[in-house]
Amino acid sequence: MNVDTRMRESFDRELSGKSAIITGSTSGIGLGIARSLAKRGVNIMINGFGSAGDINNVRKELEKSSGISTAFSGADMSSEQAIEQMIEDARSAFGQIDILVNNAGIQHVEAIESFPAAKWNAIIAIDLSAAFHTIRAVVPEMKKRRWGRIVNVASAHALVASPFKCAYVAAKHGLLGLTKTVALELAEHGVTANAICPGYVLTPLVEKQIPETAQARGLTEEQVIRDVLLHAQPTKTFVTTEEVGEMAAFLCGESARSITGAALPVEGGWTAH
Ligand code: NAD
């Protein structure tokens, strides 16, 4: 076994037996993060929407591939009470919560003057306020054990804006502000808080938009990908859920203990513009 392999194995083992809640992990980026943490032996509470069959398949896949335990909460991140129940359920399942990943998020694209107030309220609740509720609930136990990792899945839209996304951009900028504040409060307690800022990731949500946009604009699917979706992403390549998952797992490891309050772009150079 060479030195690289030994180092890799020791990185992979250091999180083994820890427990994580990952909101919005029934698909997309959250599921990518679940796979990366499961590979390292972390027990996971899956959260999000989906059919019972699909969610069972996700749980079985994670459990079989890595020998970890999973639990599931269908808590709606727009409900403070449901969030409290999810945290209690995770404690009952695993005894403690070491890692919190705030990932659940929704989007709505419309001009400010016609942007529905209900959409604004839902996006602020799910993409921003949910993280406030989850973080305040887990911080006391993390402080007590002097170890914890909080990873907030923000967006390149936490750093720059795009038109027609007022609620999303406001929520993601807010999430980064929350991340920085919490990082400062917890800096001497062994708990880090960071934000990952992905660019365009080819999740089921985005995949669905490609043929629709092609039809609406009279473009080919290749033109939609390159000139519409990836217009601002210099690599002209989608970020993958695996890449975001591995960034989250790195932030949870011991090597990242001095990284806190940071916005980590995984966006193909988007914010270098
Ligand atoms: P997705 O739609 O594939 O997954 C969203 C997840 O959140 C699903 O598991 C869904 O069930 C869950 N969810 C939605 N509303 C919920 C609610 N009210 N309560 C609980 N769970 C809920 O989307 P994704 O692309 O994987 O997005 C995940 C996160 O990554 C979001 O915060 C999003 O803003 C962020 N993000 C995505 C991209 C991208 O290009 N896909 C880029 C940057 C940031």
Please give a structural write-up.
With 273 residues, this protein is an alpha/beta fold. It is built from 9 helices and 7 strands; from the N terminus they run αβαβαβαβαβαβαααβ. It has helices spanning 3-13, 28-39, 52-66, 80-94, 117-145, 166-186, 204-217, 221-229, 241-252; strands at residues 19-22, 43-47, 70-73, 99-102, 148-153, 191-198, 263-266. Strands 3-2-1-4-5-6-7 form a 7-stranded parallel sheet, with helices on both faces. It is globular. The model has no long low-confidence stretch (mean pLDDT 94). The structure holds nicotinamide-adenine-dinucleotide.
What would you say about this model in short?
The chain contains nine helices and seven strands. It is of the alpha/beta class and 273 residues long. It has a seven-stranded parallel sheet with strand order 3-2-1-4-5-6-7, with helices on both faces.
